[in-house]
Design goal:
The chain has 514 residues and is mainly alpha-helical. The chain has 19 helices and no strands. The longest helix has 35 residues.
Protein backbone atom coordinates (compact mmCIF):
# COMPACT_ATOMS: atom_id res chain seq x y z
CA UNK A 1 0.00 0.00 0.00
CA UNK A 2 2.39 2.64 -1.20
CA UNK A 3 1.44 6.11 -2.21
CA UNK A 4 3.30 8.06 -4.87
CA UNK A 5 5.11 11.27 -3.93
CA UNK A 6 2.87 13.13 -6.33
CA UNK A 7 -0.30 12.02 -4.58
CA UNK A 8 1.19 12.82 -1.19
CA UNK A 9 2.12 16.30 -2.34
CA UNK A 10 -1.28 16.92 -3.84
CA UNK A 11 -2.95 15.88 -0.62
CA UNK A 12 -0.80 18.26 1.35
CA UNK A 13 -1.34 21.11 -1.07
CA UNK A 14 -5.08 20.52 -0.88
CA UNK A 15 -5.02 21.59 2.72
CA UNK A 16 -4.61 18.32 4.51
CA UNK A 17 -3.93 18.89 8.17
CA UNK A 18 -3.50 15.40 9.47
CA UNK A 19 -2.35 14.92 13.01
CA UNK A 20 1.38 15.05 13.76
CA UNK A 21 3.35 12.00 12.82
CA UNK A 22 0.78 10.62 10.39
CA UNK A 23 -0.24 10.81 6.79
CA UNK A 24 -3.84 10.53 5.78
CA UNK A 25 -5.09 7.01 5.18
CA UNK A 26 -7.57 5.67 2.69
CA UNK A 27 -11.04 4.96 4.07
CA UNK A 28 -11.01 1.81 6.12
CA UNK A 29 -7.29 1.41 5.79
CA UNK A 30 -4.41 1.81 8.15
CA UNK A 31 -2.33 4.95 8.12
CA UNK A 32 0.75 5.06 6.03
CA UNK A 33 4.05 4.32 7.62
CA UNK A 34 6.88 6.68 7.56
CA UNK A 35 5.15 9.86 8.64
CA UNK A 36 7.61 12.35 10.02
CA UNK A 37 8.24 12.11 13.74
CA UNK A 38 7.15 15.12 15.73
CA UNK A 39 10.21 17.00 16.95
CA UNK A 40 8.65 17.71 20.36
CA UNK A 41 7.05 14.28 20.80
CA UNK A 42 8.52 13.63 24.27
CA UNK A 43 7.28 16.98 25.53
CA UNK A 44 3.89 16.13 24.01
CA UNK A 45 3.94 12.87 25.97
CA UNK A 46 4.46 14.93 29.14
CA UNK A 47 1.48 17.16 28.29
CA UNK A 48 -0.72 14.17 27.47
CA UNK A 49 0.44 12.38 30.62
CA UNK A 50 -0.53 15.35 32.82
CA UNK A 51 -3.98 15.48 31.24
CA UNK A 52 -4.52 11.73 31.59
CA UNK A 53 -3.36 11.78 35.21
CA UNK A 54 -5.88 14.53 35.96
CA UNK A 55 -8.75 12.52 34.51
CA UNK A 56 -7.78 9.21 36.14
CA UNK A 57 -6.98 10.50 39.61
CA UNK A 58 -10.27 12.41 39.73
CA UNK A 59 -12.06 9.08 39.97
CA UNK A 60 -10.46 8.47 43.41
CA UNK A 61 -9.22 11.81 44.77
CA UNK A 62 -12.73 12.89 45.72
CA UNK A 63 -13.33 9.65 47.66
CA UNK A 64 -10.87 10.80 50.33
CA UNK A 65 -12.58 14.21 50.50
CA UNK A 66 -16.14 12.87 50.76
CA UNK A 67 -16.45 12.77 54.58
CA UNK A 68 -15.24 16.36 54.87
CA UNK A 69 -17.46 17.54 52.01
CA UNK A 70 -20.45 15.78 53.55
CA UNK A 71 -19.88 17.49 56.88
CA UNK A 72 -19.42 20.88 55.22
CA UNK A 73 -22.41 20.74 52.86
CA UNK A 74 -24.68 18.63 55.08
CA UNK A 75 -25.86 15.93 52.69
CA UNK A 76 -26.93 12.43 53.76
CA UNK A 77 -25.06 9.13 53.55
CA UNK A 78 -27.56 8.00 50.92
CA UNK A 79 -26.69 10.95 48.69
CA UNK A 80 -22.95 10.60 49.17
CA UNK A 81 -22.53 8.07 46.37
CA UNK A 82 -23.82 10.56 43.80
CA UNK A 83 -20.66 12.63 44.13
CA UNK A 84 -18.82 9.66 42.63
CA UNK A 85 -21.62 8.33 40.43
CA UNK A 86 -22.33 11.64 38.67
CA UNK A 87 -18.76 11.67 37.31
CA UNK A 88 -18.85 8.00 36.30
CA UNK A 89 -22.23 8.34 34.54
CA UNK A 90 -21.26 11.28 32.36
CA UNK A 91 -17.75 10.03 31.69
CA UNK A 92 -18.65 6.43 30.89
CA UNK A 93 -21.68 7.13 28.72
CA UNK A 94 -20.12 9.86 26.55
CA UNK A 95 -16.64 8.46 25.89
CA UNK A 96 -17.39 6.98 22.48
CA UNK A 97 -19.03 10.22 21.38
CA UNK A 98 -16.03 12.16 22.69
CA UNK A 99 -13.68 9.93 20.70
CA UNK A 100 -15.62 10.48 17.49
CA UNK A 101 -15.81 14.23 18.10
CA UNK A 102 -12.00 14.22 18.27
CA UNK A 103 -11.93 12.46 14.88
CA UNK A 104 -14.39 14.99 13.44
CA UNK A 105 -13.22 18.30 14.84
CA UNK A 106 -9.51 17.71 15.38
CA UNK A 107 -7.66 16.24 18.33
CA UNK A 108 -5.85 19.39 19.40
CA UNK A 109 -9.05 21.45 19.52
CA UNK A 110 -10.97 18.78 21.44
CA UNK A 111 -8.03 18.18 23.79
CA UNK A 112 -7.78 21.87 24.70
CA UNK A 113 -11.56 22.26 24.97
CA UNK A 114 -11.69 19.23 27.27
CA UNK A 115 -8.95 20.68 29.46
CA UNK A 116 -10.63 24.08 29.69
CA UNK A 117 -14.03 22.60 30.46
CA UNK A 118 -12.64 20.17 33.03
CA UNK A 119 -10.83 23.02 34.79
CA UNK A 120 -13.96 25.20 34.82
CA UNK A 121 -16.09 22.35 36.17
CA UNK A 122 -13.47 21.68 38.87
CA UNK A 123 -13.50 25.32 39.94
CA UNK A 124 -17.30 25.23 40.02
CA UNK A 125 -17.21 22.14 42.24
CA UNK A 126 -14.56 23.56 44.54
CA UNK A 127 -16.74 26.60 45.12
CA UNK A 128 -19.89 24.49 45.70
CA UNK A 129 -22.24 25.76 48.38
CA UNK A 130 -24.78 22.94 48.10
CA UNK A 131 -25.04 19.24 47.34
CA UNK A 132 -26.73 19.89 43.99
CA UNK A 133 -24.00 22.28 42.91
CA UNK A 134 -21.30 19.73 43.72
CA UNK A 135 -23.10 16.91 41.88
CA UNK A 136 -23.60 19.16 38.85
CA UNK A 137 -19.91 20.03 38.83
CA UNK A 138 -18.92 16.37 39.00
CA UNK A 139 -21.24 15.58 36.07
CA UNK A 140 -19.66 18.40 34.04
CA UNK A 141 -16.22 17.02 34.89
CA UNK A 142 -17.37 13.71 33.44
CA UNK A 143 -18.64 15.37 30.25
CA UNK A 144 -15.38 17.18 29.56
CA UNK A 145 -13.35 14.17 30.69
CA UNK A 146 -15.14 12.17 27.99
CA UNK A 147 -13.80 14.66 25.44
CA UNK A 148 -10.34 14.86 26.95
CA UNK A 149 -9.41 11.21 27.59
CA UNK A 150 -9.87 9.78 24.06
CA UNK A 151 -8.33 12.89 22.48
CA UNK A 152 -5.26 12.47 24.71
CA UNK A 153 -4.77 8.80 23.82
CA UNK A 154 -5.37 9.34 20.10
CA UNK A 155 -2.83 12.20 20.14
CA UNK A 156 -0.32 9.81 21.66
CA UNK A 157 -1.23 7.21 19.03
CA UNK A 158 -0.69 9.62 16.14
CA UNK A 159 2.40 11.35 17.55
CA UNK A 160 4.69 8.34 18.05
CA UNK A 161 5.43 6.62 14.74
CA UNK A 162 8.62 4.70 15.50
CA UNK A 163 7.83 1.25 17.01
CA UNK A 164 10.51 1.46 19.71
CA UNK A 165 9.59 4.99 20.71
CA UNK A 166 5.91 4.08 20.63
CA UNK A 167 6.63 1.22 23.02
CA UNK A 168 8.36 3.54 25.48
CA UNK A 169 5.57 6.12 25.22
CA UNK A 170 2.83 3.58 25.85
CA UNK A 171 4.78 2.08 28.72
CA UNK A 172 4.82 5.46 30.43
CA UNK A 173 1.21 6.24 29.50
CA UNK A 174 0.00 2.83 30.68
CA UNK A 175 1.75 3.33 34.00
CA UNK A 176 0.06 6.72 34.43
CA UNK A 177 -3.36 5.29 33.58
CA UNK A 178 -2.91 2.37 35.96
CA UNK A 179 -1.33 4.30 38.81
CA UNK A 180 -3.61 7.34 38.64
CA UNK A 181 -6.05 5.88 41.14
CA UNK A 182 -3.34 5.39 43.74
CA UNK A 183 -1.94 8.88 43.09
CA UNK A 184 -5.46 10.23 43.60
CA UNK A 185 -5.67 8.57 47.01
CA UNK A 186 -2.33 10.07 48.07
CA UNK A 187 -3.01 13.54 46.71
CA UNK A 188 -6.55 13.53 48.11
CA UNK A 189 -5.22 12.59 51.53
CA UNK A 190 -2.58 15.33 51.54
CA UNK A 191 -4.94 18.05 50.33
CA UNK A 192 -7.79 17.06 52.68
CA UNK A 193 -5.56 16.70 55.73
CA UNK A 194 -3.43 19.82 55.29
CA UNK A 195 -5.66 22.20 53.31
CA UNK A 196 -9.36 21.59 52.66
CA UNK A 197 -11.51 19.10 50.75
CA UNK A 198 -12.22 21.77 48.12
CA UNK A 199 -8.58 21.63 47.02
CA UNK A 200 -9.20 18.10 45.75
CA UNK A 201 -11.10 19.89 42.98
CA UNK A 202 -9.11 23.11 42.77
CA UNK A 203 -5.89 21.16 42.18
CA UNK A 204 -7.17 20.29 38.69
CA UNK A 205 -6.71 23.93 37.71
CA UNK A 206 -2.95 23.57 38.12
CA UNK A 207 -2.89 20.38 36.01
CA UNK A 208 -5.08 21.96 33.33
CA UNK A 209 -3.12 25.21 33.06
CA UNK A 210 0.18 23.37 32.56
CA UNK A 211 -1.34 20.94 30.03
CA UNK A 212 -3.14 23.72 28.12
CA UNK A 213 -0.01 25.83 27.88
CA UNK A 214 1.99 22.88 26.60
CA UNK A 215 -0.76 21.65 24.29
CA UNK A 216 -1.36 25.04 22.70
CA UNK A 217 2.35 25.42 22.03
CA UNK A 218 3.31 21.90 20.95
CA UNK A 219 0.33 20.22 19.29
CA UNK A 220 -0.48 20.68 15.62
CA UNK A 221 -3.86 22.20 14.87
CA UNK A 222 -6.38 21.62 12.11
CA UNK A 223 -9.00 19.04 11.34
CA UNK A 224 -8.17 15.50 10.22
CA UNK A 225 -7.80 15.21 6.45
CA UNK A 226 -10.09 12.17 6.32
CA UNK A 227 -13.05 13.11 8.50
CA UNK A 228 -15.84 10.60 9.22
CA UNK A 229 -19.44 11.72 9.54
CA UNK A 230 -21.28 11.51 12.85
CA UNK A 231 -23.53 8.49 13.33
CA UNK A 232 -26.40 10.14 15.22
CA UNK A 233 -28.60 7.03 15.82
CA UNK A 234 -25.55 5.04 16.92
CA UNK A 235 -24.45 7.85 19.22
CA UNK A 236 -27.86 7.97 20.92
CA UNK A 237 -28.09 4.19 21.28
CA UNK A 238 -24.63 3.70 22.78
CA UNK A 239 -24.68 6.79 25.01
CA UNK A 240 -28.07 5.96 26.54
CA UNK A 241 -27.17 2.27 26.73
CA UNK A 242 -23.91 2.92 28.58
CA UNK A 243 -25.68 5.41 30.85
CA UNK A 244 -28.24 2.75 31.82
CA UNK A 245 -25.54 0.14 32.44
CA UNK A 246 -23.44 2.41 34.65
CA UNK A 247 -26.53 3.77 36.43
CA UNK A 248 -27.92 0.29 37.07
CA UNK A 249 -24.69 -0.98 38.60
CA UNK A 250 -24.29 2.24 40.60
CA UNK A 251 -27.81 1.75 41.99
CA UNK A 252 -26.87 -1.77 43.06
CA UNK A 253 -24.75 -0.21 45.81
CA UNK A 254 -27.84 1.27 47.51
CA UNK A 255 -30.71 -0.82 46.08
CA UNK A 256 -31.31 -4.56 45.96
CA UNK A 257 -30.47 -6.39 42.76
CA UNK A 258 -34.17 -7.27 42.53
CA UNK A 259 -35.15 -3.59 42.57
CA UNK A 260 -36.43 -2.33 39.21
CA UNK A 261 -34.06 0.63 39.51
CA UNK A 262 -31.21 -1.85 39.35
CA UNK A 263 -32.19 -4.68 37.02
CA UNK A 264 -34.53 -2.51 34.95
CA UNK A 265 -31.76 -0.13 33.91
CA UNK A 266 -29.36 -3.03 33.31
CA UNK A 267 -31.84 -4.79 30.99
CA UNK A 268 -32.63 -1.60 29.07
CA UNK A 269 -28.94 -0.79 28.79
CA UNK A 270 -28.09 -4.27 27.50
CA UNK A 271 -30.90 -4.11 24.90
CA UNK A 272 -29.75 -0.69 23.71
CA UNK A 273 -26.16 -1.91 23.34
CA UNK A 274 -27.38 -4.92 21.33
CA UNK A 275 -29.37 -2.53 19.14
CA UNK A 276 -26.26 -0.39 18.78
CA UNK A 277 -24.19 -3.37 17.64
CA UNK A 278 -26.89 -4.25 15.10
CA UNK A 279 -27.08 -0.69 13.81
CA UNK A 280 -23.31 -0.43 13.40
CA UNK A 281 -23.42 -3.25 10.83
CA UNK A 282 -25.85 -1.20 8.71
CA UNK A 283 -24.85 2.43 9.26
CA UNK A 284 -23.13 4.19 6.35
CA UNK A 285 -20.77 5.98 8.78
CA UNK A 286 -20.75 3.88 11.98
CA UNK A 287 -19.73 5.47 15.25
CA UNK A 288 -17.73 2.35 16.16
CA UNK A 289 -16.76 0.52 12.95
CA UNK A 290 -16.69 -3.22 13.54
CA UNK A 291 -13.20 -3.33 12.01
CA UNK A 292 -12.01 -1.56 15.18
CA UNK A 293 -13.24 -4.19 17.64
CA UNK A 294 -13.20 -7.41 15.60
CA UNK A 295 -9.42 -7.59 15.26
CA UNK A 296 -8.42 -10.33 17.71
CA UNK A 297 -5.58 -8.50 19.42
CA UNK A 298 -7.55 -5.28 19.66
CA UNK A 299 -10.70 -7.00 20.95
CA UNK A 300 -8.63 -8.93 23.51
CA UNK A 301 -7.08 -5.64 24.64
CA UNK A 302 -10.48 -4.05 25.22
CA UNK A 303 -11.59 -7.08 27.24
CA UNK A 304 -8.34 -6.94 29.21
CA UNK A 305 -8.99 -3.29 30.11
CA UNK A 306 -12.60 -4.13 31.08
CA UNK A 307 -11.69 -7.07 33.32
CA UNK A 308 -8.71 -5.39 34.97
CA UNK A 309 -10.81 -2.26 35.54
CA UNK A 310 -13.32 -4.39 37.43
CA UNK A 311 -10.71 -6.36 39.38
CA UNK A 312 -8.31 -3.65 40.45
CA UNK A 313 -10.89 -2.02 42.69
CA UNK A 314 -10.21 -4.91 45.02
CA UNK A 315 -6.92 -3.14 45.70
CA UNK A 316 -7.77 0.54 45.69
CA UNK A 317 -11.17 0.47 47.39
CA UNK A 318 -11.07 -2.26 50.02
CA UNK A 319 -7.40 -2.08 50.86
CA UNK A 320 -7.93 1.63 51.51
CA UNK A 321 -10.66 0.71 53.98
CA UNK A 322 -8.40 -1.87 55.61
CA UNK A 323 -5.45 0.49 56.02
CA UNK A 324 -7.58 3.27 57.51
CA UNK A 325 -10.20 1.38 59.53
CA UNK A 326 -8.20 -1.64 60.73
CA UNK A 327 -4.58 -0.45 60.81
CA UNK A 328 -5.59 3.11 61.70
CA UNK A 329 -3.58 4.85 58.98
CA UNK A 330 -4.24 8.50 58.15
CA UNK A 331 -5.35 9.39 54.59
CA UNK A 332 -1.83 10.60 53.78
CA UNK A 333 -0.09 7.46 55.07
CA UNK A 334 -2.68 5.36 53.23
CA UNK A 335 -1.77 7.09 49.99
CA UNK A 336 1.95 6.64 50.65
CA UNK A 337 1.33 2.92 51.27
CA UNK A 338 0.31 2.49 47.63
CA UNK A 339 3.46 4.10 46.21
CA UNK A 340 5.50 0.85 46.05
CA UNK A 341 2.75 -0.65 43.91
CA UNK A 342 2.86 2.41 41.66
CA UNK A 343 6.63 2.06 41.30
CA UNK A 344 6.28 -1.60 40.29
CA UNK A 345 3.54 -0.67 37.84
CA UNK A 346 5.75 1.94 36.17
CA UNK A 347 8.72 -0.43 35.86
CA UNK A 348 6.70 -3.39 34.55
CA UNK A 349 4.83 -1.15 32.08
CA UNK A 350 8.05 0.13 30.53
CA UNK A 351 9.74 -3.27 30.48
CA UNK A 352 6.67 -4.92 28.94
CA UNK A 353 6.29 -2.48 26.05
CA UNK A 354 10.02 -1.97 25.40
CA UNK A 355 11.36 -5.50 25.71
CA UNK A 356 8.79 -8.24 26.31
CA UNK A 357 5.97 -7.55 23.85
CA UNK A 358 8.20 -6.79 20.82
CA UNK A 359 10.03 -10.10 21.41
CA UNK A 360 7.29 -12.39 22.68
CA UNK A 361 4.02 -10.77 21.66
CA UNK A 362 1.07 -10.03 23.95
CA UNK A 363 -0.09 -13.65 24.38
CA UNK A 364 2.26 -14.54 27.25
CA UNK A 365 2.52 -11.00 28.69
CA UNK A 366 -1.10 -9.98 29.36
CA UNK A 367 -2.15 -13.44 30.67
CA UNK A 368 0.93 -13.35 32.95
CA UNK A 369 -0.22 -9.95 34.24
CA UNK A 370 -3.69 -11.37 34.87
CA UNK A 371 -2.24 -14.39 36.71
CA UNK A 372 0.02 -12.23 38.90
CA UNK A 373 -2.90 -9.93 39.72
CA UNK A 374 -5.09 -12.92 40.62
CA UNK A 375 -2.34 -14.26 42.90
CA UNK A 376 -2.00 -10.85 44.56
CA UNK A 377 -5.76 -10.63 45.20
CA UNK A 378 -5.84 -14.15 46.66
CA UNK A 379 -2.78 -13.30 48.79
CA UNK A 380 -4.60 -10.30 50.27
CA UNK A 381 -7.27 -12.63 51.70
CA UNK A 382 -4.69 -13.76 54.29
CA UNK A 383 -4.77 -10.33 55.99
CA UNK A 384 -6.26 -10.24 59.47
CA UNK A 385 -6.65 -7.84 62.40
CA UNK A 386 -3.02 -8.33 63.49
CA UNK A 387 -1.33 -8.10 60.09
CA UNK A 388 1.45 -5.57 59.51
CA UNK A 389 2.13 -3.51 56.41
CA UNK A 390 5.71 -4.57 55.67
CA UNK A 391 5.22 -8.29 56.21
CA UNK A 392 1.69 -8.85 54.96
CA UNK A 393 0.38 -5.93 52.85
CA UNK A 394 3.46 -4.86 50.90
CA UNK A 395 4.34 -8.20 49.19
CA UNK A 396 0.95 -8.70 47.46
CA UNK A 397 0.90 -4.99 46.58
CA UNK A 398 4.21 -5.36 44.75
CA UNK A 399 2.94 -8.41 42.85
CA UNK A 400 -0.25 -6.56 41.93
CA UNK A 401 1.75 -3.60 40.66
CA UNK A 402 3.85 -5.81 38.39
CA UNK A 403 0.77 -7.61 37.07
CA UNK A 404 -1.30 -4.48 36.41
CA UNK A 405 1.63 -2.81 34.67
CA UNK A 406 1.94 -5.75 32.28
CA UNK A 407 -1.78 -5.56 31.52
CA UNK A 408 -2.37 -1.84 31.09
CA UNK A 409 0.64 -0.84 29.01
CA UNK A 410 0.36 -3.83 26.67
CA UNK A 411 -3.41 -3.62 26.23
CA UNK A 412 -3.38 0.13 25.56
CA UNK A 413 -0.63 -0.26 22.99
CA UNK A 414 -2.30 -3.14 21.16
CA UNK A 415 -5.74 -1.53 21.32
CA UNK A 416 -4.58 1.42 19.23
CA UNK A 417 -1.76 -0.06 17.14
CA UNK A 418 -2.24 -0.04 13.36
CA UNK A 419 -5.57 1.78 13.53
CA UNK A 420 -6.58 4.12 10.70
CA UNK A 421 -6.09 7.81 11.47
CA UNK A 422 -9.80 8.59 11.10
CA UNK A 423 -10.62 5.86 13.66
CA UNK A 424 -7.92 6.76 16.21
CA UNK A 425 -10.29 8.78 18.41
CA UNK A 426 -13.01 6.17 18.69
CA UNK A 427 -10.48 3.34 19.12
CA UNK A 428 -8.89 5.31 21.96
CA UNK A 429 -12.31 5.99 23.45
CA UNK A 430 -13.01 2.25 23.55
CA UNK A 431 -9.95 1.79 25.78
CA UNK A 432 -11.30 4.31 28.29
CA UNK A 433 -14.87 3.03 27.95
CA UNK A 434 -13.79 -0.54 28.66
CA UNK A 435 -11.88 0.47 31.78
CA UNK A 436 -14.59 2.87 33.02
CA UNK A 437 -17.52 0.48 32.57
CA UNK A 438 -15.46 -2.36 34.02
CA UNK A 439 -14.64 -0.20 37.03
CA UNK A 440 -18.31 0.72 37.56
CA UNK A 441 -19.39 -2.90 37.36
CA UNK A 442 -16.56 -4.07 39.60
CA UNK A 443 -17.25 -1.43 42.24
CA UNK A 444 -20.95 -2.29 42.39
CA UNK A 445 -20.45 -6.06 42.45
CA UNK A 446 -17.64 -6.01 44.99
CA UNK A 447 -19.45 -3.55 47.26
CA UNK A 448 -22.61 -5.65 47.20
CA UNK A 449 -20.79 -8.92 47.82
CA UNK A 450 -18.65 -7.42 50.57
CA UNK A 451 -21.66 -5.89 52.33
CA UNK A 452 -23.54 -9.19 52.18
CA UNK A 453 -20.54 -11.03 53.65
CA UNK A 454 -20.32 -8.59 56.56
CA UNK A 455 -24.07 -8.83 57.22
CA UNK A 456 -24.02 -12.63 57.16
CA UNK A 457 -21.09 -12.70 59.58
CA UNK A 458 -22.94 -10.53 62.10
CA UNK A 459 -26.03 -12.77 62.17
CA UNK A 460 -26.48 -14.18 65.68
CA UNK A 461 -23.47 -12.35 67.14
CA UNK A 462 -23.18 -9.49 69.61
CA UNK A 463 -22.04 -6.42 67.63
CA UNK A 464 -19.02 -5.70 69.80
CA UNK A 465 -16.15 -3.64 68.31
CA UNK A 466 -14.10 -6.82 67.89
CA UNK A 467 -16.94 -8.61 66.10
CA UNK A 468 -17.59 -5.60 63.85
CA UNK A 469 -13.92 -5.43 62.96
CA UNK A 470 -13.93 -9.12 62.08
CA UNK A 471 -17.07 -8.58 59.97
CA UNK A 472 -15.18 -5.92 58.05
CA UNK A 473 -12.34 -8.37 57.49
CA UNK A 474 -14.84 -10.89 56.13
CA UNK A 475 -16.16 -8.28 53.70
CA UNK A 476 -12.65 -7.33 52.50
CA UNK A 477 -11.66 -10.96 52.08
CA UNK A 478 -14.78 -11.63 50.00
CA UNK A 479 -13.95 -8.68 47.75
CA UNK A 480 -10.38 -9.91 47.27
CA UNK A 481 -11.54 -13.42 46.34
CA UNK A 482 -13.96 -12.07 43.75
CA UNK A 483 -11.27 -9.76 42.37
CA UNK A 484 -9.02 -12.80 42.07
CA UNK A 485 -11.81 -14.53 40.14
CA UNK A 486 -12.11 -11.56 37.76
CA UNK A 487 -8.40 -11.72 37.00
CA UNK A 488 -8.52 -15.51 36.63
CA UNK A 489 -11.24 -15.09 34.01
CA UNK A 490 -9.06 -12.43 32.38
CA UNK A 491 -6.18 -14.92 32.27
CA UNK A 492 -8.29 -17.43 30.33
CA UNK A 493 -9.85 -14.84 28.01
CA UNK A 494 -6.57 -13.18 27.03
CA UNK A 495 -4.73 -16.50 26.71
CA UNK A 496 -7.37 -17.67 24.21
CA UNK A 497 -7.90 -14.46 22.25
CA UNK A 498 -4.45 -12.95 21.76
CA UNK A 499 -2.62 -14.16 18.67
CA UNK A 500 0.65 -16.00 19.31
CA UNK A 501 3.88 -14.43 18.19
CA UNK A 502 5.13 -10.89 17.83
CA UNK A 503 2.44 -8.40 16.79
CA UNK A 504 3.35 -6.80 13.46
CA UNK A 505 1.69 -3.52 14.39
CA UNK A 506 4.03 -3.24 17.37
CA UNK A 507 7.15 -5.09 16.28
CA UNK A 508 7.40 -3.16 13.04
CA UNK A 509 7.58 -6.10 10.64
CA UNK A 510 6.02 -4.74 7.53
CA UNK A 511 3.12 -3.21 9.38
CA UNK A 512 1.96 0.34 9.42
CA UNK A 513 2.20 2.52 12.48
CA UNK A 514 0.28 5.35 13.91
Amino acid sequence: MDRSPESAESAESAGSTAEPGTRSAPPGGAPYAGGGAHEHRWLILGVIGIAQLMVVLDATIVNIALPSAQQDLGFSDGNRQWIVTAYALAFGSLLLLGGRVADLVGRKAVFLAGLAGFAAASAFGGAATSFGMLVGARALQGVFGALLAPAALSLLTTTFTDPKERAKAFGIYGAIAGAGGAVGLLLGGVLTEYLDWRWCLYVNLAFAVVAMAGGARLLHGGRPADRPKLDVPGTILVSVGLFCIVYGFSNAETHAWGDVQTWGFLVVGALLLVAFAWWETRAAHPLLPLRVVLDRDRGASYLAMFISGAGMFGVFLFLTYYLQQILGYSPVITGVSFLPMVACMVVSSVVATNSLVPRLGPKPIVPLGMALSAVAMAWLTSLDLTSSYAAHVLPPLLVAGIGLGLIFATAMNLATAGIAAHDAGVASAMVNTSQQVGGSIGTALLNTLATSAATNYLVGKQPTPQVRAQASMESYSTAYWWSALFFAIGFVVTLVLYRPGRPKAVAGEGAVHM
